[in-house]
Amino acid sequence: EKKGFIFDLDGVIVDTAKYHYLAWKKLANELGFDFTLEQNELFKGVSRKRCLEILLEIGKVNASREQFDRWMVEKNKDYLDYIEKMDASEILPDVPRVLEFLKNKKVPIALGSASKNARPILEKVGLLPFFDVIVDGNNVTKAKPDPEVFLIAASNLQVVPQNCVVFEDAVAGIKAANNAIMTSIGIGDSNTLTEANYNFNDFTEMTDDFLNSLLQ
Length: 216
Ligand code: B16
Ligand code: MG
Known about the structure:
alpha/beta, binds 1,6-di-O-phosphono-beta-D-glucopyranose, Beta-phosphoglucomutase, magnesium
């Protein structure tokens, strides 16, 4: 039966979490409080709007609707300044090998990301041609752990959810994949991604044999 593979972006294909962090930290500091790398973990896979809500809770800051929207714009502007300089050197190890392996097997590939900046990032690092389908923050109304982003990806790939494999680095993303009844593969710390069906520290640990086993 036909299989489909779905990749998260931030933390799976590229490490843009560090740029999100710097942009959120700058805003927090302007507002008079600190934002730690540990707190940044809570932001992974979470929508921009929800991130700002959490940030303001951390800093105990109240905002009008207008002010909230201005900070959203400001954070994204700073984030765009960072990703402006991205190139292929920022692709995480062995991502191109896995993408090429799947392409050679004619397996359809989708992106399933919460980011509204997903397309320009894929373009900058040169991976856009690998993706048959892109579903990102512009296409969804419900954030991970809601399965919406992955279910839309599966539907666009024309593969039933049960035959989809999802690569994710965020707890919310693994939950979203499991909620979609897809095979979930955690990329990163297995102590954090405890609900994943399989765990790998990164793609260098993922053998061709393992990928083939997913295609059976
Ligand atoms: P943007 P992913 C997510 O991407 C990030 O992990 C998360 O930290 C970020 O807030 C979210 O995208 C929205 O990003 O501000 O660019 O729309 O991991 O789902 O690829
Ligand atoms: Mg991610």
